Amino acid sequence: MTKQELIDLAFTAMENAYAPYSNYHVGACVLCKDGRTYLGANIENASFGLTNCAERSAIFSAYSNGVRKDDIEALAIVSDGPYVAAPCGACRQVLCELMNEDTPIHLSNRKETCTKTISELLPMSFGGKDLEG
User: Fold this and answer.
1) Is residue 79 predicted with pLDDT exceeding 80?
2) How far is residue 80's CA from residue 43's CA, in Å, rounded to a whole number?
3) Is the pTM of this model over 0.85?
4) Among 7, 52, 108, 131, fewest CB within 10 Å belongs to which?
């Protein structure tokens, strides 16, 4: 699958976003090395802390279906906002634990796209290694 096809799937996922409060729609797509894909959209809640972001929805769906970090080839995160979509801090922490540090993350808003890794988005991260010993 090409990078653009993955981004297009994330935009398809974005159509299912539930964002009545922010009106900020986000979609995500996890691509596995075997070609499987897992979609996610942001789902808001009036109790804002209970909102789930698109990238967490997608990665949790993948993990719920048996995928693990070594199975993931790439992730796309897209939005309808004026700037390139970028994961919030909570999502960066989740992605840091559930993806390999060099997995490409394609960020887009239809006007522009950039590719980062979780290591670039969350340098000096805290994770399981910090809890050892």
Assistant:
1) yes
2) 15
3) yes
4) 131
Catalytic-labelled residue, pool 5, 15, 44, 55: 55
55 catalytic? Reply is yes
Rounded CA-CA distance 18/73 in Å is 27
Q: 33 Cβ partners below 8 Å, 6+ apart? A: 71, 72, 73
Q: Are the C-beta atoms of 4 and 74 separated by less than 8 Å?
A: no
d(C-alpha 124, C-alpha 133), whole Å: 19
Nearest alpha carbon to residue 95 among 131, 50, 59, 43: 59
One-letter identity of residue 67: V
Q: What is the mean pLDDT of the chain?
A: 95
Tens digit of each residue's pLDDT (9 = 90 or more) over 14-43: 999 999 999 999 999 999 999 999 999 999
Task: Dump strand ranges (E) for the chain.
Answer: 26-32, 37-41, 72-79, 105-108, 113-116
